[in-house]
Amino acid sequence: MREHGEVAGMLELRGIEAGYGEHIVLRDVSLTVQPGTVVAVLGPNGAGKTTLLRVASGLLRPSAGTVLLGGEDLTRARPYVRARRGLCHIPEGRGIYPALTVRENLVLHAHKGEETPALDRATSAFPVLGQKLRQPAGQLSGGQQQMLSLVRAYLTRPRLVLVDEASMGLAPVVVDQIFEFLGQIAGSGTALLIVEQYVSRALALADRVYLLNKGGVVFTGPPADIGDDLFMHYLGTAAGAHQAP
Questions:
Q1: Which of 126, 157, 188 is the last residue of a domain?
Q2: Dmax over Cα atoms in the chain, in whole Å?
Q3: Per the structure, how many domains does the chain have?
Q4: Domain match, 127 and 208 both
Q5: Which of 9, 30, 89, 148 stands 20 to 30 A from 55 (CA)?
Q6: What are 33-53's pLDDT values in tens digits?
């Protein structure tokens, strides 16, 4: 695990309350992602995990609390402003443009003048995409669409990547490739905030874990500090159980 000091967080959520209309999902949630670390957010269905990522990326404005990115208050900033500050959000459900070709999807996220190197990086990370460059993204398999979505974390060179359920609905061999890629991103020094259904995979990657339940944080700490009793109570599984798809 990487060591880090008490420096300003890459991302800080302070006292967040958020929801949809009159339905409050998050209640007084605080979370910090330090530079170059991996933070996993775990919890049962409906705990507020996706809502937390939406607040962090600016897709959902909180009704209370503060969002800071690199120490800057961006609570009211739109998603594109946060993206310019180095945040990349990979949403659940394949964040791609299905009518565009694979090449067009990749070039769309590349910096101007760096399209060719960006394509090289993307196809190096996931060689199968190099074989599908002229194919509409909507015709790719689910796993290939997820690869195309995730590879934005290479193309935009972000400082922080938010990943929501990267392994959802994928075959085991594809899940292995996805997590190998996430490990490479983390190894490059990019901070990660991940929501993941497979507990053991998230714990293996994470430096710190936040466990949510009913919109509140019920545990925060390093993975080694999580006991089986806590996980059995909130997730119905042991912390050390193998959760392969």
A1: 157
A2: 53
A3: 2
A4: no
A5: 148
A6: 999 999 999 999 899 999 999
